[in-house]
Amino acid sequence: MAPVLRTKKLPDTSDNKSGKIQQLSSKIKVKRKNKVSAEVKQHRLEQKRIAEKLRREKRRNDPEAYKNYCQSERARNEKRKKEGKLKSIDQLSEREKRARRKQQNLWKKNSRTRQKENIELTMEQNNMNNNVESKQAKVGRKRIQKNLRKCFRDNKKLLDDNKNLRMKINSLHKKLQRLNIKKSDSTSPEYKVDKMLNGQNVNPEVRKTLILHQVMIQQLKLSYQESRSSKFKANIGVHRSNKPLEYIKNMKSNQKFIQDRVTSFYEENSKIIPDKKASIKMNGKQVTKRYMNATIKDLHSKFCSQMKIILVSMKRKFSQYTLGLVEYNVLYTLAWSTLQKSSHGFVTLSKSLRHDPSAIIVHIKKILDVYLATNPEIKKLHIMSDGPTTQYRNKKMFYLITQYFPQCYSQLEDITYNFSEAGHGKSSADGIGGYIKKLADDQVKYGTDVSNFDSLLAILRDRVKSVYIDCVSEDEISAIDLILPNNFKPFVGTMKVHQYTWNKLQHNFILFNSLSCFDCSNKNPCIHFAMGKIDYSINDTTEKMNKRLVAKTKKSDNSTSKLTKNLKCLEKDVAKDNLEKNETMLLRRSSRIKKKL
């Protein structure tokens, strides 16, 4: 803005007239000076802008100077923020916010327009540079045009060929329609059979019989129409009986007849419950419950004897199959006489509280000694158990199952050991164990004294007849400890193993699988779930094992003599206990009888 001059008004006297004139002349001079200075000022401002722009460019080109400038600007902004001169948009009033947002939108709009102009300028420059066409581009364009002309010619030729083919197809369709019209008028047996089959592929013999059937019907119709004698027509009418048609029509009624007979038979051989609530809903209707007077088997035989009209067909009792399977805690064998699968339960008891591999092997061996001797045809052994590492899934168990068992049982050719997934039980094996424990608890409830291990064994053998029961001594478990070598070959990834296999042909190898596979043979690694193998090659461990076996046999001879003496003493103690129990039982019964009298 131009500076404003303020002058003091002088009194209007004759003395001051000259001073007033001088003051007015000075005003005019100042105004002229201000007009010149504004133009100069505008020029100077423009020069200042240019100089400032050059200075900014120079500063940006020098990274050190630009870094110092940025730091000083940050410090200045922080200072202004602290003083309250520079405010964020949150600290402004609503009016100031609107003004700032308006200014920001204007800045963004201007920046977008500048960017757009820059892009257009660069595009124009590029177009100007690319306007110069090279010789190669001309040749390439000619080649493209030549190829396009060729494509158009080929396309036109293909369209003409397509048109000709369509015309031929239409003519063939017309011919086919005319042939079908002619065929529909024909009454040949072949046409009737083709129409009946409706394009289905059938056996040639079936088609031949159908054609013969149509020929016979056609011949009968012609002979019936052409004959003049009534006797011949009567004979043909007799042969045209509708018994098969009547049978097909009456199929539903026959089924209803049989159903009514069966329901009436069940109603005769059952009784209704008098209770109102004893009813169930069947087919949307409320029906009262009925109890049968006899078993279904007896009623079935009675029904077949009474209803002679209804024929009952029975399926074969046993399907022929062969199976030889042995599982841990439940043994499946093959009954060759009836070709029927049979199962055997077993229980092994021991005074020892050990659950390590040595104890487990002795428990399994007790069962195999009995069943492999009675079934010499068994050559494959399948064992199933859960997978705790302290009991079943460890390097000692791998060694004993695959290296110790084949020495004990020469008939075995394949051994497969399977681990169930975590959280899964042993099914029937757990059921047998629970039954034995409950039986022992029940005997104590009924008044039977189970004072020691031998008395428990005697009670179980007396009460349980369908389960094989045997006991394991501590000496047998310690004998297995002597067989085990000091250094084992562990398998890396034991926790992921769910199956390991052994084969007689490669007796030094154990094959490990991540999942159970029964498709692959035990001779080679599984192609589906193989994890690796362990090689128990013949070395010093076999000699040590033989020495330990000799020592074991000597110790077992000494232990057997001790066991026989202990058994005789135990038998005497058991006899005494039984006599005492019988006396106490007699005294109790006599006291009860006296009380009743």
TrEMBL record:
Coiled coil: 155-182
Keyword check for Metal-binding: no
Ranges annotated as biased composition (Basic and acidic residues): 9-18, 36-65, 85-97
Start-end of Basic residues biased regions: 98-112
Region (Disordered): 1-112
Keywords attached to this entry: Coiled coil
TM regions (residue ranges): none
Protein name, per record: Uncharacterized protein
Organism: Cotesia glomerata
